[in-house]
Every structure is written in C-alpha cells, then in structure tokens.
Amino acid sequence: MSGANPYKVSIGLETHVQLKTRSKIWCACPNTFGSDPNTDVCPICLGYPGSMPVLNAEAVKLTVMAGLLLGCRINHYSKFDRKSYFYPDMPKNYQISQYDQPLCTGGSVPIEVDGKPKVIRIHRIHLEEDVAKNNHFETASGVDFNRAGTPLMEIVSEPDIASADEAFAFLQALKQMLVYGGITDGNLEQGNIRCDINCSVRPDTQTTLGTKTEIKNMNTFKGVHRSLTYEIKRQIEVCEQGGKIMQETRRWDDARGVTTAMRSKEYAHDYRYFPEPDLMPVVLDDAQIDEWRTALPEMPQARRTRFITDFGLPAYDADVLVADKPIADFFEATLAAGASPKAASNWVMTELLRMLGEQEWSVSEARITPTMLADILRLLDEGKINNPAAKTIFSVCFTEGGDPRAIMEARGLAQVSDEGALDRWVQAAITANPKSVADYQAGKKAALQFLMGQVMRASQGKANPPKVMQALKAQLDG
Is residue 2 part of a domain? Predict the structure, then answer.
C-alpha cells in the first residue's frame, strides 16, 4: 500500500448458518450429516411437482433467538419468497427464501482486534432453505440432496469490516454467540457455517464505497482471512496502476493463494422474487417473542465475568475456558463434582486441551468425564497420588474411561508416604552419592534436587515429594 495514496477497505459478509433442528425446514426428513448420499430425502427435498412445504416452527424460533442475541429488531410480520434460478443443486429451479420482509433486521456483533473494540452492524437475518451439494469426481459429477432443505439462516452484515483481521474476529465472535445460544453446532468441517465476501477499496478521500467483488462459498475462517488479505492487496494494486475494479464474482484458490475471476456480476440480479404461494406469512406477537427472549442462555462475556468474580479465576483462564462452550461446560461440571476452581482450570487448560488437540477430538469424543477429573484431583488433594501418577490416570481415563481410584490401585500408582519406606530410600540415596551430599553441605542447593531425583527414581515415582524433601533435610541437616 502506498503511503502517499492510502486506501480504505470496506467488507461485508453474508454468513450462512445451518440451524440445529432435528428435521429439515419443509419436511420431516432428518437434519443430519454423514448419511449415504440421497438417503435423507423425500418428494419435498427433491422438488417433485405437487409436493407442499410445511414450515418447521423450530427453525423460526432459532432464527428469532439468534436475532435477539445480536440485538436485532424482530419483525412481527415476515414472509417467504421464491428466488428463481437454475442450477443442479436446486431441484425446484427456485429457492424458498425471504426477500423484502425478513424475520430480523438491525443488530450488531462486538469484536476486538489488537485490543481495540469495534461494533459490526448487522443489516438483516433471514431464513431460507439450504441447497443440495454438488460433488465433483475425476470423470463425473453427482448431486447429493441430503442437504437440500436444511434450515439455513443468512446473516448479512453492513460493510463495516475494514480488514482481514476484523473479518476473522467477526466470524469467531458470531460463531461463539450462536453456539452458546444453541442455534447451530458451528461445525465448519460439516459446512454448518459458510460465507460469501463482498470486498471493496477506495481512496480515503472518497466517501462512497468502491466497486466490490464477491468471493463465494468460503467454508473456513482461515480461508476468509487469507482470501481477503490477497484480494485487498490485489484491488489496491489495480487502483494504484490506474486500472478499474470490475464488479465480478471471484473464487478463492486455496492451493495457489489467489482469487480468480469466475463471472462478471451485474449491478442487480433478476431473481424474479415473488411471495411463496404455498406458505403463509409468519406472524409473531410480543408474548411469543418475550417467551423466546427469556429462554436465551448465558452469553460468553457474561460467563467470562462470572468465572472471574464467582470462581476467582485469572482473566486468562476465563478467556481460554469460555472460548469453547463444551470446554466451559466440562469445567463447570468438574466444579459441581467437587473440584476446586483453579485446580480444575489448570487441568482442563493443560492436560485436557493438550490431549484433545493431539487426538483432534471434541470433548464429547473423549472418555473422561468431569466426575473422573474431580476424582483425580481429590486423590491429589488427599496425597494418595502425585502429579506424574495423576497424569497417568488422566491419560487412561481420557482414552478408556474408568474409576480413577481403581486405576490407581490396579496400576500401583498410589503415593508412598510411609516414613519407614521413605527413610530407607533417602538413606540409600545419601549413601550412594557422597559427592552430592558434600556439595549440599558446602552450600550448593542444586545437589539437594539431585538427591531428591534419586529417591524418586528408586521409588519409581511413588514417593511423596514433600515428605521426601523433609526426610532428606532431616538427615542432611541433622
């Protein structure tokens, strides 16, 4: 970017969020992921002539609750419309969506980048059906209609985002709020959240927005960040070389790290919207909206504050735990099982997150439960095991499950605190290492740690460390 000719960046995101309902939006087919192709379908999913849609009320509820979470205005009257276009993934040749009267308007998402807070305004949230999935193979393509009819909420932001970092922060904050609200599973690998990017640049002396390009179907937050980093740089270079930005749709080539032109984009698409004749308008009253408002769960920021004030956790711990709702839930359940807050926080942030990362598991896939972790911490507090033994038991519980006390006994991991046994190990270490004894008595404190290590080795890690230290000092200082 030229310092003499700086540019402003304006980015708007159209974020598509699959809703967490049991069935699809117009029919009773299951809203699931991973079934064999074209098995979770019916005449409505496949767009057979004469098939009639019936609105899933839960999809309306979740969309309104998302709007309430984001501070939107909930419209008491909204309707569905037909958006006409031809593509293999849309069997009816139109998509049922919402055009001029959506469920939610306004609202915002607070973000923070480099310690600076900012609010990204929301333009609208509307409800529609997802389309089928095109699968491309080496010599052929196929269409899987299992995804057709999945309830899809589209959240359209205002062009308030000014950088790739802000776009990334927006998507992270939005996902966290929606997962906490039970609106979506937020699983990017399963396509629960996808977005289209609108990006433009302009000289900072220009008040109107620049010509935008659209990058379609982004399904990872890192991909959004990388594509925007490239596209912003590309547009600025075009402008600085005297060229003109073309209004067009581009695709992101992740392997090459570039955006490439797909097709030119007219200033207005003619989708021939008209009201969906097979569905009644959605009419909501204040009592219904208030009932859903009272059902809203605790949001991440409120939970973070509570972790700090009620449990005495450092802000860092609270941030790490709250970042992932299932992890925060696991932590709180561990406290309910009797663990102390700081001990539980330490083990969740270190051992649990480390092992989940190594296995690439979610917390629900691990065999360990909050009660198991609380039992391990209780054994530690009682002096029955030391930290190495606790980590061994934790590892077994993580992969296999089981009762921590039974694992301790079966594997001989109980900590030895018997003074007679400790004295024998200590005396053996002193006798075998006269130089270290002399070094310690000459004032070299590191020699004491060496002797401590010899005792722990002799005991196969079972000796009680504080009592070993006490016994060593008693014999060496006495």
Answer: no
Q: Would 344 be classed as within a structural domain? A: yes
230 and 259 both lie in a single domain: yes
Residues paired with residue 16 on neighbouring β-strands, in sequence order: 154, 194
End of a domain among 230, 255, 288? 288
Q: Do 246 and 215 share a structural domain? A: yes
Phi and psi at 417, nearest 5°, equal -120, 0
Indicate whether 350 and 314 sit together in one domain.
yes
End-to-end CA distance of the chain: 73
Same domain, 168 and 43: yes
Q: Which of 352, 385, 410 is the last residue of a domain?
A: 410
Among candidate residues 256, 249, 153, 130, the one with its CA nearest the CA of residue 196: 249
Handedness of CA 387, 388, 391, 393 (dihedral sign): negative
**Residue 294 belongs to some domain of the structure:** no
Distance from C-alpha of 13 to C-alpha of 127, rounded to nearest angstrom: 16
DSSP 416: B
- H helix or E strand, kind and range, residue 425: helix 419-432
Retrieve residue 227's tokens: 């594509």
- Tens-digit pLDDT profile for the chain (478 aa)? 444 558 999 999 999 999 999 999 999 999 999 999 999 999 999 999 999 999 999 999 999 999 999 999 999 999 999 999 888 999 899 999 999 999 999 999 999 999 999 999 999 999 999 999 999 998 999 999 999 999 999 999 999 999 999 999 999 999 999 999 999 999 998 999 999 999 999 999 999 999 999 999 899 999 999 999 999 999 999 999 999 999 999 999 999 999 999 877 654 467 899 999 999 999 999 999 999 999 999 999 999 999 999 999 999 999 999 999 999 999 999 999 999 999 999 999 999 999 999 999 999 999 999 999 999 999 999 888 988 899 999 999 999 999 999 999 998 888 766 677 677 888 888 888 888 888 778 788 888 888 888 878 887 777 778 878 887 888 887 6
Is residue 388, in this structure, part of any structural domain at all?
A: yes
Q: Where are the alpha helices (DSSP H) in 284-417?
A: 286-294, 300-311, 315-322, 325-336, 341-347, 353-359, 370-381, 387-400, 404-410
Give me the domain span that covers residue 426: 419-477
Closest CA to 102 of 130, 82, 74: 74
